[in-house]
Amino acid sequence: MEPLLKISDLHVGFLNYAGVARVLNGIDLELFPGEFLGLVGESGSGKSLTANAVLGLLPARSAVISKGSIMFEGKELIGRSEKEFQGLRGKKISMVFQEPMNALNPSYKIGKQMVEILKLHKGLSNKEAKAEAVRWLTQVHIQNPEKVVKEYPYELSGGMRQRVLLAMALSCGSQLLLADEPTTALDVTIQAQILRLMKETADQLGTSVLLITHDLAVVAQTCQRVAVMYCGNIVEIGPVTKVLHEPCHPYTKALLKALPNPDHSETELQSIPGSVPNLLTPPAGCRFHPRCDLVEKTCMELRPQLTTVSENHYVACWREEDHV
Amino acid sequence: MAQFRYLRYFTKRYPLTVTGAVIIFLVVMVSLAAPLVSPHNPYTLNLTDRLKPPGSIYLLGTDELGRDILSRIIYGARLSLLAGVGIVGIAGLFGIVIGSVSGLLGGKVDQAVMRLMDIMLAFPSLVLALALSAALGANFRNSILAIAIVKIPVYVRLVRGQALSIKERQFVKAAQTFGAPKVWIISRHIIPNCLAPVVVQATLGIGEAILIAATLSFIGLGAQPPAAEWGAMVSMGRIYLLDQWWYASFPGIAIFITVIGFNLFGDGVRDMLDPRFRN
User: Domain total for chain B?
Assistant: First the structure.
């Protein structure tokens, strides 16, 4: 099957007074039609940046894509004009955000915000767009959509706002949804509802979803495959069951160990020693080596590439064969 | 009834704001109803009644051509309000557009615009207004234009600052991911969300604008005779100040009261829109 989105060897750097921070260091990622792919990693590992690069929304003055390609529907995205990107955003590729509280314009009614996008991308008349907006609100299970379109964002709860944003993101027929920690700011019950809704709606429309999160439980619930990022690299990628149950990369293992376990609530939570390296002077070789227990000479010198461990399961680690 | 109770509560809570609002209301009403409320024609010369002191026929006296000062003050309110609102309106409009574009685009455009504004702000505003209005030609319309141009940087700075903070807000980013063009982002996201401080600045600015317009007229670069303009009246009355005190005093008092009205109201609006003062 042809991937919908294919990122290969993507390098992104940020220029600042001290030099170039290499925030994405050769990302390879494929997303197939209708698939849910989880992208996990700690803060600053480059998850959101990857999503922004796909949408062409990297800060123009400081970010530099030095290498790599992003193919969407078989066409290269890097180097497209702002105008071309505007035609893609919201129409073919959409995004939902971490904080639904702030993602709607406080000065306009919900209906108006939805109608504008529909008019922009689908060229609907005002009346058609209004009907479409109501239909989409029903689709995301909002009670009383006729009333909600006349309300301002402050009148809605966080969960409702996230539903509205999801409706907005999907209303113009996007094939790819970039969900940047869509449930982090919501409480647990609402989280589950929103995830279920996302899954249901995306499955129904055949939309592919790139779910960015640092919550492994969310990944386990919703995704078919998961990619683990560390410091601008993908260190492990594979089917969720494989990666979560038989992790191969020391970082993935450490992450899983750091999860609270309800069966052993007395034991202290494990943490990964050390901290995320400074990206201006990243460690040579494997970027995880200063924090890794299994470190050996090769790790400090050469960057490991993703290699197959089992079907569809890849890991970038020199010591991978030693602990499978 | 509920509205009335709210009004009473409001008056008690913000007496100065309400005073300001009442003054503005009165000035607006008087200037709208000028032909009905003024006792005499403001432009009719009556040479037998020159420089009459305040009395029963001429409540606030007459000027050196026998024109009724009260009537001229009433008609003068029209010019002063027009000047105040016009100046703030023009300056605000340009300020909002230039400021939001400059803030959103950033970079070289922003640098160029802001340095130009810095240069304009480096001049004392009255001197710059004087020079501009002398260059444009001394009349009332040009004096308003000149003052408006001088006041533009105030709004540009204000709006640009707002735009800088708003463009980092999530809903602007969200709008970008939905494919909104830059023009949309400025007109529907940045401008509507930065209006509150502009409104405060504008209400406070009206008083000052009236004052500067009157000053230009006083110097002779604003409204030209025989226009009934407060600043021009004070200017003419200045010659007679020692013997006919009423000629310059009453228009002066009119300026004072109107400006105070707008300032009190502006302060009140600022406090109401500032969450730190709200409780």
Answer: 1
Torsion (CA) B43, B45, B51, B53 in degrees, nearest 10: -70
Contacts of B107 in chain A (CB under 8 A): 61
Handedness of CA B269, B273, B276, B279 (dihedral sign): positive
Q: Three-state SS for B117?
A: helix
Find out whether A187 and A153 touch, Cβ atoms under 8 Å: no
Provide the residue range defining the domain that includes B272: 68-277
3-class secondary-structure state, position A300: helix
The predicted model scores a pTM of 0.81
B127 within domain boundaries: yes
Secondary structure of A156-208 in HEC code, one letter for each residue: CCHHHHHHHHHHHHHCCCCCEEEEECCCCCCCHHHHHHHHHHHHHHHHHHCCE
Q: How many CB atoms lie within 10 A of CB B25?
A: 12
Distance from CA of A77 to the nearest CA of B (A): 15
Cβ neighbours of A108 in B, within 8 Å? 188, 192
Helix (H) or strand (E) holding B76: helix B69-105
Answer with the residue of higher pLDDT: A272 or A264. Answer: A272
Which position has the token pair 């376990």?
A261
Note the CATH number of domain A35-57+81-223: 3.40.50.300
> Residue B111 belongs to a domain with what CATH number?
1.10.3720.10
Q: Nearest residue of A to residue B184 by CA position?
A: A116
Q: Are B46 and B67 in contact (CB under 8 A)?
A: yes
Q: Helix axis angle, B140-166 relative to B107-122, nearest 10°?
A: 140
CB contact under 8 A, A97 and B173: yes
**Per-residue pLDDT at B275:** 60
Nearest to A230 by CA among A190, A289, A183: A289
Residue A324 pLDDT > 50? no
The ranges of chain A annotated as CATH 3.40.50.300 are 35-57+81-223
**Which of B110, B149, B113 lies closest to B131, judged by CA?**
B149
At what angle are helices A158-170 and A110-122 packed, to 10 degrees?
Answer: 10
